[in-house]
Amino acid sequence: MKRFFNTRETIVTEALDGFLRSAAGQHLCRLDGYPDTCVIMQREPDRGQVSVISGGGSGHEPAHAGFVGRGMLTAAVCGALFASPCVDAVVAAILATTGEAGCLLVVKNYTGDRLNFGLAAERARALGKQVEMVIVGDDIALPDSATPRGVAGTVLAHKLAGYGATQGWPLARVAEFVRDGAGRMRTLGMALEDCNPYEAGRTSRLAADEAELGLGIHGEPGAQRIALATASDLMRRVADTLEANLPATVRNTRFAVVLNNLGCVPEVEMALLLEAFSHTPLARRASHVIGPAPLMTALDMNGFSLTLIELDEAITQALQAPVQPRAWPGMAPRHSPAVAPMPTMPSAFPYPASADPAVRTLLEQGAKILIANEAPLNELDGRIGDGDAGSTFAGAAREITAALDRLPMADPHQLMTTLSNILTQHAGGSSGVLFAIMFAAAGRSTAPWRDALCEGLEHMMACGGAKPGDRTMIDALHPALEALARTGSLHDAARAARTGADATTTMETARAGRAAYVPSEHVRNVPDPGAEAVARLLEGLAGK
């Protein structure tokens, strides 16, 4: 995988300074201890409150630096990629932020973190500082493990600790509150690909048809490899496993669920995953939701994790309290999507259905031709565009096929108007709306239907801005409709369309359409997909 970086050794310091230059980092600063001491802290920490410090290896952003600010962390100690920070860095963070109220260290349950933060706590106590440490081990992937890993639930511990500190609670009370909350958390991850910690030549351990359940946030292998399935099935697997892990004593407890992006899942898929969770049995017990958002990531891991936390009044209040860090997404009651009534829309079928067997046969054959060419047209479009031209034409064909019994086939102008209405309702992409424009104008025309189609094409060109020679579907459609109006022959129209479509392969530059944004060398010898679709449609109808 290609990455934006200079050297692996400078990734962390350069990224932290970039973060401090951003709007999210305006209220923060760093200790002047690079490269060994990478501490991000509040510019003006309130030393009258308990200082809350966390950290660990980098590569989990926004954790941990992204959660520094009022209401959450006082400071974050950042190690190298997936490596615990050194003891002195943790001590420096304690000394820089801690007053009489003392300091709470929130530590993920990994050996390196426990040892380095633990020794730092001992040294800070020897220097006269009050220090408590809470270990977070929320991962349930390995149920028999004596040392469950600290994963996304650690961010919830940051939130609970920050809330207690801002309330002015003494250190012992803050620590006990966070320990209690950490004991109420359970997390499980799922990934389609593991991560790459900037190791040249690294390949995924997962096959194309595999997913991994219960993997760690450092690329550790998961508890199980499972077959790739739909998003709903994979989410159900995670949710059911979490629910099965709940002890009987919490069967009637309310929960908040955290949907965490482990790195590179697109936002559209994260939103889809939340919808998938809403249809699992576990969702009935989740009264609140946090995310979907990146909270505790693993570089470029293509996966997500679910965290459950048992709610009581104090924890609910703590998680809902506003905070300064922008990376905290907030907690909201889980609810059904709000739906407003559709306004009354004009009917797509303003005319009564009428029959014409010849017209019906043409429509049925045309639809079959476009559907059969869906994949090859998509492949062609993928060479110069976004690869959906075939699906656009095939989708329109399917909609027209579904409406055949409602079409006014005996009246060409009424039929063209109705076809325009169907396309405006269902057809996507620019091709769909352009043909809707053409058919609408043709339907309004008083000329014979062949001439009306030419008038419709003129209106399409005026609206779309393309003309013959611009390397678009117009190069096939314009000569085809002219030939049809002149001779009335489908064979003549098909020959003209093929000549026009083939001509687009020699046009070095596209002046309209998606290909206009593509360098000339990428479109050379490639026919325009829209023009090719028109040519294939007419050739099929003409029996060629």
Chain-wise SSE layout:
Layout: H1 11-21, E1 28-30, E2 39-42, E3 51-58, E4 75-81, H2 87-97, E5 103-108, H3 111-126, E6 131-136, H4 153-166, H5 171-183, E7 185-193, E8 210-213, E9 224-227, H6 231-245, E10 255-261, H7 267-277, E11 286-293, E12 302-310, H8 313-320, E13 331-333, H9 357-372, H10 374-382, H11 389-402, H12 412-426, H13 429-444, H14 449-464, H15 474-487, H16 490-503, H17 520-523, H18 529-541
Parallel strand pairs: 3-4, 3-5, 5-6, 10-11
Antiparallel strand pairs: 1-2, 2-4, 7-8, 7-12, 8-9, 10-12, 11-13
Helix pairs in contact: 2-3, 4-5, 6-7, 9-11, 9-18, 10-11, 10-18, 11-12, 12-13, 13-14, 14-15, 15-16, 15-18, 16-18
Keywords: ATP-binding, Kinase, Nucleotide-binding, Transferase
Domain DhaL: 357-543
Protein name: DAK2 domain-containing protein
Please tell me about this protein's structure.
Pfam families: Dak1 (PF02733), Dak2 (PF02734). The chain is of the alpha/beta class and 544 residues long. It has helices at 11-21, 87-97, 111-126, 153-166, 171-183, 231-245, 267-277, 313-320, 357-372, 374-382, 389-402, 412-426, 429-444, 449-464, 474-487, 490-503, 520-523, 529-541; strands spanning 28-30, 39-42, 51-58, 75-81, 103-108, 131-136, 185-193, 210-213, 224-227, 255-261, 286-293, 302-310, 331-333. A hairpin with an 8-residue loop joins strand 1 (28-30) and strand 2. Helix 4 runs antiparallel to helix 5 (171-183) and helix 9 (357-372) packs antiparallel against helix 11. The protein is elongated and about 100 Å long.
